[in-house]
Design brief:
The protein is an alpha+beta fold. It has a single domain, classed as Carbon-nitrogen hydrolase (Nitrilase/N-carbamoyl-D-aminoacid amidohydrolase, 4-Layer Sandwich), CATH 3.60.110. The protein has a 6-stranded mixed beta sheet with strand order 5-4-3-2-1-17. Strands 8-9-10-12-15-16 form a 6-stranded mixed beta sheet, covered by helices on one side. A 3-stranded antiparallel beta sheet has the order 11-14-13. Helix 1 packs parallel to helix 2 and helix 3 runs parallel beside helix 4. The longest helix is centred in the C-terminal third of the chain and has 23 residues.
């Protein structure tokens, strides 16, 4: 497939509430706004149809899950065809009774459902109890040819793993998208907040550099405490990084907004030619990468 020389990417950063239909309507509206600003590939944040329910372990939230393709996929396939844009939507997938995934769908600009990515790395941290809800993905890392470029998608916790970024880039992704829901515990923000945010942004900028590709990350905003307690203050700061790790555009900490930036896809060849990390990889010497840990073999 012949791709254009440049593409405008749009990230939707928004608040979510308890009303699923209201969240979907808002996501549709924001997608329209991004398209009106010229965005050709539009990525929504992680699990945008609901509050971030993984703060608690409660079986009632399984009722939020849906089949893929399913109702939300149909809405955004129709929207993509109407607007002529590529859409990446993060959904709670019900695969079968008792089997659920945190899944991102990729829809081409003609409304075709291109495929899905199931989140591979599942966290289990205070207020991020995702292992209760989600089975680790089994579709592997992949990339898709769209009308406006070849893209790869991972989801939130995947962004901490260089292996995920590398394998997605090795499938030819020009842009890595990371739909995200990350924020501060209010009680920890003063002491650890900026350090946590800095690590999150830095590791993804590193993926852009190491793989010679763009990285685009939409994150939600707002304070959410679906079942009481301190909840999470989502920090927003959605951003787009170029292949040298420079931030091209960054969202605010607390406001709903749309981030649109034009990306020069021809720059990727120049970047990878001058910094040929893919060429110089020692694929013959990486035995052990598939192991959990090697240090105990020397005991």
């Amino acid at each position: 497939m012949t791709h254009p020389k440049s593409v405008k990417v749009g990230l939707v950063q928004m608040r979510c509430g308890a009303d699923v239909q209201a969240n979907v309507r808002k996501a549709v509206e924001r997608t329209r706004e991004a398209a009106a600003q010229g965005a050709q590939i539009i990525c929504l944040q992680e699990l945008f149809t609901s509050v971030y329910f993984c703060q608690v372990e409660d079986h009632k939230y399984f009722a939020l899950a849906e089949e893929i393709p399913g109702p939300s996929t149909e809405i955004f396939c129709a929207l993509a065809a109407e607007l002529g844009v590529v859409i990446i939507a993060s959904l709670f997938e019900k695969r079968a009774a008792g089997l659920y995934h945190n899944t991102a769908v990729v829809i081409d600009a003609d409304g075709r459902f291109l495929g899905k990515y199931r989140k591979m790395h599942i966290p289990d941290d205070p207020l991020f109890y995702e292992k209760f809800y989600f089975t680790p993905g089994d579709l592997g890392f992949k990339a898709w040819d769209t009308r406006f470029g070849r893209i790869g998608v991972c989801v939130c916790w995947d962004q901490w793993y260089p292996e995920a970024a590398r394998l997605t880039a090795l499938h030819g992704a020009q842009i890595l998208f990371y739909p995200t829901a990350i924020g501060w515990h209010p009680s920890e923000k003063a002491q650890y907040g900026e350090r946590q945010h800095g690590a999150w942004e830095t590791v993804q900028r590193g993926h852009a550099i190491a793989n010679g590709c763009y990285v685009a990350t939409p994150n939600r905003v707002g304070h959410e405490a679906p079942d009481g307690g301190d909840g999470i203050e989502f920090w927003g700061r959605s951003f787009i990084s170029d292949p040298s790790g420079q931030i091209l555009r960054r969202g605010s900490t607390g406001e709903e907004e749309i981030i649109v930036e034009e990306l020069d896809l021809e720059m990727l060849d120049t970047q990878r030619t001058h910094w040929p990390f893919l060429r110089d990889r020692r694929v013959d010497a990486y035995q052990g990468m598939e192991q959990r840990y090697l240090g105990d073999r020397h005991v």
